[in-house]
Amino acid sequence: MYPNRDKDKGGTLVDVIDRILDKGLVINADIVVSIAGVELLGIKVRAALASFETAAKYGLEFPSGTQYENKVWQQATIDKEECPQCKKMVAKEELMNESCPWCGWISAHAQKTLNKKAVIPL
């Protein structure tokens, strides 16, 4: 088996876009036009490309008028972690205290809790 074999192949455009949205991309540029040491024109450009979830995670500012109360925004700001079994992103609290809703993986912490509940006192 060659687990990293797919990494050697070039990624598709969808893979590249998914990676950029997952990790984020920031472009920061300063352009200065000067003659004889005198600055005539200065332009500062800062652009960020990321999913709302990634942007919220890193504290990027959002445009005025962004509705923070809607359900989608609240879902994006929940702290998530990758399930060790199915590799899907799941709310951290749910993954640690219950199980993965996708594959049913149960953490050691959740298993201990289940075992304590299963013990019936005589």
Topology:
Layout: H1 5-8, H2 13-23, E1 25-35, E2 38-49, H3 52-57, H4 71-76, E3 80-82, E4 89-91, H5 92-97, H6 108-118
Antiparallel strand pairs: 1-2, 3-4
Task: Give an account of the 3D structure.
The chain is of the alpha+beta class. The protein folds into two domains: 1-61, no CATH class; 78-122, no CATH class. The chain is 36% helix and 24% strand. The chain contains six helices and four strands. It has helices spanning 5-8, 13-23, 52-57, 71-76, 92-97, 108-118; strands at residues 25-35, 38-49, 80-82, 89-91. Strands 1-2 form a two-stranded antiparallel ribbon. A hairpin with a 6-residue loop joins β3 and β4 (89-91). The radius of gyration is 23 Å and the shape is elongated. Mean pLDDT is 79; it is low at 1-5.
Q: What proportion strand? A: 15-25%
Sheet/helix structural class: alpha+beta
Rg from Cα: 23 Å
Distance between the termini: 52 Å
- How many DSSP-defined strands? 4
Number of helices: 6
Unreliable stretches, pLDDT < 50, 5 or more residues? 1-5
Describe the largest sheet.
2 strands, antiparallel
The rough form would be described as: elongated
State the order of secondary-structure elements, H for helix, E for strand. HHEEHHEEHH
Number of domains: 2
Descriptive labels:
two-stranded antiparallel ribbon; 122 residues; 2 domains; alpha+beta; disordered N terminus; elongated
